[in-house]
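Weekly puzzle thread! Below is a chain. First person to post its structure in token form gets bragging rights.
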Amino acid sequence: MKIAIIGAGPAGNYTAYLLAKQGHDVTIYEEHNQPGLPIQCTGILTEDLKNHIGLSDDYIVNRMQSVEVFAPNNQSFTTKNTDIIVCRKKFDNFLLKKAVSAGAKIEDSTKFLNYEKNQLTLKKQDKTIKTSAEIIIGADGPNSKVSKIINSEILKKYPTTFYFGAQATVKGNFKPNTYSVYLGNICPEFFAWVVPENSNQARIGLATKQTPNIHFNNLLKRLNIDESQITDKQGGLIPCYNPNLKLQHNNIYLIGDAATIIKSTTGGGIIPHLEAAETLVHCIKYNKDFNKELKRKKLYLHLIIRKFLDQFTDNDYNELIEKLNKSTANEVMQKYSRDDIIKLSTNLIIQNPSLVLYGLKHVKKIINAL
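Winning reply:
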């Protein structure tokens, strides 16, 4: 089949790779002239990545050994961690190279305009182009034009929630194998982070629903970071999972950020994107409904937890970190990946009844999150 994929990010490239391997005529259309740019992601992934593609030094920048989570009162909880830090430009192009090697084609600097009656309308170098496609897959990011084709009425009633991310690459002295997370009013309704590339350079950022630049400047002040230490800045939208969206309508599909396939607790999505791509390709092969086949329980649980945490005060976070330090959370988090949030949450609760009692104190927040 002739298949068009809109967007050359990880979701689009991996989907293209899987479909091209099956012999489909696949073309990826990318708006930017360089796939992987501009960078709008911190690039921190769990080792679950190896379940989908081989881990490679071609794109891995650093490997973590621990994560330290700071409460507003500066008390911290530390756990061992084996996350990998990737260069998104290199990672995206690693997947693109796999897709092209499998037979897919790439058309960069090509903007998607519309799809109707199996006809794609595109714009390249001020020229409008029309071409046919039996299937179109929207992997065109948080503001997906493909999604608006099949979800226009749904989005009016159930608009997607977005966080605004602000990040900079910073020179300085950092723990090379530990990344840090900051909770509370330093970054309302989400969190801030320091993710080292090495001992001399780190990615420092945050995400929030309002005034990200103000909160980002306050974060830099708290960390004693001077403007002269910043080598570049990035920013972008992070969607929260929207369970109301249709991910397939006839021969139109959504994947990645376009489908809001996001871990709303962390804003990460690459591993769920790859998992969903495998399901989507299975659905195309066996003519199954992607809306029904995609397993969304994990995404929904991430969303509930995010809505719960969004209601926390600084005192709530201070108490949470104190509880975690007195629990077996360290051991549980080493055993279960956040990419399997159901197993992680279940075992945290089973092994730590005190966390259940803590949750009962916040029953109103839980009800509001559901």
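Puzzle host: Confirmed. Bonus trivia for everyone else. The chain has three domains: 2-43+87-160+240-294, 162-239, 301-369.
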